[in-house]
Write a sequence for this structure.
């Protein structure tokens, strides 16, 4: 079986009906890149940039971030690299952020909320990302979006950063800009959000948590954390439909994207992209070829 999977390396990921699915990999660190290449992912669908912050004892400087993003872009050599902006919160403690204890961190001060509240932190990351865009095919993705105004505000800040870089004579490319769909609110207004961005990537881990009101970190609730819940699957269909109506693509980067019992369902739903852990790339390709 392992040998059969190895034979799928270098093969395009197309469904029986001839639709090509973008099959990407999720990474959390630069050192995961070896596994991405080894498993022949067509790109990176989710680079969790927070590791840079978690592994540091100070706010990573623009140059420190730039080096990491540049390395990933260069190693991927023109393949798509979707880098998610900072996604931390009170559940991931970072001393230098000085986050206060919260009773409900999952519903709290996290991800894009921190970025909009402390734009200096955000701008440093955006500058590093835009500078690194010159070295490959980088896209920027924003986590935990719940409202249209948040996306507009992010775009405003991005324009400010671009204007600054331009005035400093620093080159950058016009990167693709997408958001994660991982709150039920974002699902319900996906038609409006789709007009603002280039792509959607569904974060099923958080979307399941917020839809079912189940803390994803609480092992006691495992039997209730049903990621196959019809509510979750309906939401995925809604997101794909809204994306297509607006002419943008939709993918899944949460764990559910690698669930082989659902691959065929996702293909039928019209999914355009799946981003999975490197080890799951070939098994998912195998499923898609037969879906
Ligand atoms: C998700 O929520 O599904 C996701 C991909 O993001 P994370 O697991 O990093 O929250
Ligand atoms: Mg998430």
């Amino acid at each position: 079986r392992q040998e059969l999977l190895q034979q799928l390396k270098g093969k395009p990921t197309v469904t029986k009906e001839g639709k090509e699915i973008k099959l990407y990999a999720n990474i959390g660190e630069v050192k995961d890149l070896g596994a991405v290449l080894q498993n022949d992912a067509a790109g990176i669908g989710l680079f969790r940039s927070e590791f840079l912050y978690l592994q540091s004892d100070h706010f990573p400087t623009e140059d420190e971030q730039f080096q990491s993003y540049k390395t990933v872009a260069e190693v991927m050599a023109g393949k798509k690299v979707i880098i998610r902006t900072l996604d931390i919160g009170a559940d991931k403690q970072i001393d230098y952020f000085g986050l206060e204890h919260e009773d409900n961190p999952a519903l709290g001060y996290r991800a894009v909320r921190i970025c909009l509240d402390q734009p200096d932190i955000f701008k440093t990351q955006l500058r590093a990302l835009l500078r690194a865009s010159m070295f490959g095919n980088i896209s920027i993705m924003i986590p935990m979006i719940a409202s249209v105004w948040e996306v507009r505000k992010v775009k405003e800040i991005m324009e400010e950063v671009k204007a600054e870089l331009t005035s400093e004579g620093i080159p950058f490319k016009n990167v693709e800009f997408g958001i994660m769909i991982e709150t039920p609110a974002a699902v319900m207004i996906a038609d409006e959000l789709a007009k603002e961005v280039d792509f959607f990537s569904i974060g099923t881990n958080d979307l399941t948590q917020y839809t079912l009101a189940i803390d994803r970190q609480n092992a006691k609730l495992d039997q209730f954390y049903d990621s196959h819940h019809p509510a979750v699957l309906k939401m995925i269909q809604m997101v794909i439909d809204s994306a297509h109506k607006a002419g943008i693509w939709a993918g899944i980067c949460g764990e559910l994207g690698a669930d082989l019992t659902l691959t065929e369902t996702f293909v039928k739903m019209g999914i355009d992209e799946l981003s999975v852990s490197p080890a799951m790339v070939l098994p998912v390709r195998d499923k898609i070829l037969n879906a």
Residues 143, 182, 203, 205-206 surround magnesium ion (ligand 2) (CB under 6 Å). The mean pLDDT is 96.
